[in-house]
Specification:
By secondary structure, the chain is an alpha/beta fold. The protein is built from 11 helices and 9 strands. α9 (about 195-210) links the parallel β7 and β8. The relative contact order is 0.14. The structure holds pyridoxal-5'-phosphate.
């Protein structure tokens, strides 16, 4: 049998960059004196389904998307192309969510990092309930894991919930039957030192975990700031450009 990794240049390139990113993660964990695994979500937004399939074959378990129609189309096409391989992959929604789109996101998303409002949470809960009904004959569908996106600078136009509203939102999500509160997500503000922002966010994440012991995840770190995020305690990095290269202009 021919090894697909040596026959397709794009697969080869992705394999190399994936390997380099995992080495970066390992080095950052070692430097921070951390031994536990850190989740890697490979951000495939704007890139074609073919790249998602290549990544799944290379053993990637989590991909991240931020545009609703694009993600829904890719997930559905993957399912019809290779249901077995598709079942090994988790689709992560990482982008800002409009509340009227939330229910539809629950059709394809396996984890959502970017809940910022009660309306979005309610929409996801409704959508997950519907999906659970539809799959009930084949399997039980667990509640959808969701993270709350924190707006560190209070500029909620860039996504996220203001910190003074975080705990009320968490309490609400914890009451929803079809969602499970998994943790906190952050994108550092453009201004200032990311390391300082991540340390700030880590304190908020610890406060959330104290109130909701199941909220253990801290989703932080992208291509440019993996090391700072891991040093601050990130449990999940979201890496696009460092693995897939620049996003195609659409
Ligand atoms: C696009 C995106 C990423 C990935 O960014 P890169 O710099 O390409 O690694 C991570 N998180 C979120 C929320 C994003 O929108």
């Amino acid at each position: 049998m021919t090894d697909p990794r040596t026959t397709d240049p794009r697969t080869e390139e992705l394999a190399e960059r994936l390997h380099a990113t995992r080495e970066r993660l390992d080095a950052a964990r070692a430097a921070a004196g951390r031994t536990e695994e850190v989740d890697l979500v490979v951000v495939t937004k704007f890139h074609p389904l073919d790249d998602v399939i290549r990544l799944a074959r290379l053993g990637v378990r989590d991909v991240g998307e931020n545009r609703v129609q694009e993600a829904a189309a890719k997930a559905a096409e993957f399912e019809t192309t290779d249901a077995g391989l598709a079942a090994t992959l988790r689709w992560n929604m990482i982008g800002t969510i409009q509340s009227n789109k939330a229910a539809s996101i629950a059709r394809w998303a396996d984890r959502v990092h970017s809940v910022h409002s009660v309306k979005v949470a309610n929409g996801l809960d409704r959508g997950r309930a519907r999906r659970a009904e539809e799959t009930a004959s084949t399997r039980e569908l667990a509640p959808l894991p969701v993270l709350l996106q924190l707006s560190l600078d209070g500029d909620t136009s860039r996504g996220g919930v203001a910190r003074e509203n975080l705990h009320a939102l968490a309490d609400h999500v914890a009451e929803l039957e079809h969602l499970t509160l998994a943790g906190l997500m952050v994108v550092p503000p453009l201004e200032g030192d990311p390391a300082v922002h991540f340390a700030d966010a880590a304190e908020v994440a610890a406060g959330l975990r104290a109130a909701h012991p199941g909220a253990t995840e801290f989703s932080a770190g992208m291509s440019g700031d993996i090391e700072d995020a891991i040093a601050a305690g990130s449990t999940c990095v979201r890496v696009g450009t460092a693995i897939l290269g620049p996003r195609p202009v659409i």
